[in-house]
Amino acid sequence: MKLVNPLTAIFHPPPTPGVLAVFAHVDATVEAIGQLRRGGHTDFTVYSPVPRHEIDAALDQPVSSVRMFTLIGGIAGYEIENALDQPVSPVRMFTLVGGIAGCAIGAWLTLYMSYDWPIVVGGKPVGSIPPYVVIMFEMTILFGALSTILGIVFNALFAARRLGTVAYDARFTNDKFGIFVPSEPARAGQVESLLRGAGAEEVRRA
């Protein structure tokens, strides 16, 4: 009897069904993107070995104005995020909770140690908050950073389990372009025909 590693199901989520196409030229890739968009496909992944503005234009990605306005980059980024209606990352709650916990632990740690081993100097209070602010601040940063990393890992694992993984080809980092289109088996044939008609040199189902 073969034992199943329980970690395999966590770190290797099931593949997303769909069609993966390999293109040799950027022109064919751009043509395929246009046909997919005209065909009603909006949720697909494009691979490129190098940044190409033709692909950005075909995907109709908005150009951020933050790079032109460094001084007001934070404000511009916030406005663009609202305009694009991007979902808010749940990781920030991990950071908030971790930061509050770190601040509280820093205050408790310093005050507890002061009263556990009191050193009275010139009648000054044993538990003095102002000098402990530095430790509370450092603990806030430490716990906030650690909880942020934990939140990223936690959400990444569960997002992969919920959404699955998209197909990939190592040639996309060398000299080939690629498009992965999630689709049910019933519509996979239509997507394959569309990609082949756009000039894909290789099309396969995932």
Protein model, in words:
The protein is built from 7 helices and 4 strands. With 206 residues, it is α+β, with helices and mostly antiparallel strands. It has a domain at 15-86 and 174-206: Alpha-Beta Plaits. Helix 5 (91-116) packs antiparallel against helix 6 (129-163). The longest helix is centred in the last third of the chain and has 35 residues, at 129-163. The mean pLDDT is 81.
Write the layout of secondary structure elements.
Layout (H helix, E strand, L loop, with lengths): L5 H6 L6 E6 L2 H13 L6 E3 L5 H7 L13 H12 L6 H26 L12 H35 L13 E6 L2 H13 L4 E4 L1
Antiparallel strand pairs: 1-3, 1-4, 2-3
Helix pairs in contact: 2-3, 5-6
Amount of helix = 40-55%
Biggest β-sheet description = 4 strands, antiparallel
- Parts with pLDDT < 50 across at least 5 consecutive residues: none
Determine the mean pLDDT.
81
Rg, alpha carbons = 26 Å
What is the strand content?
A: 5-15%
Number of helices: 7
What separation lies between the terminal Cα atoms? Answer: 29 Å
Instruction: Please give the CATH architecture of the domain at 15-86 and 174-206.
Output: 2-Layer Sandwich
Instruction: Name the strands of the widest sheet in spatial order.
Output: 2-3-1-4
- Could you say what the CATH topology of the domain at 15-86 and 174-206 is called? Alpha-Beta Plaits
Number of strands: 4
- Structural class per helix/strand content? alpha+beta
Taken from the alpha-carbon principal axes, the silhouette is elongated
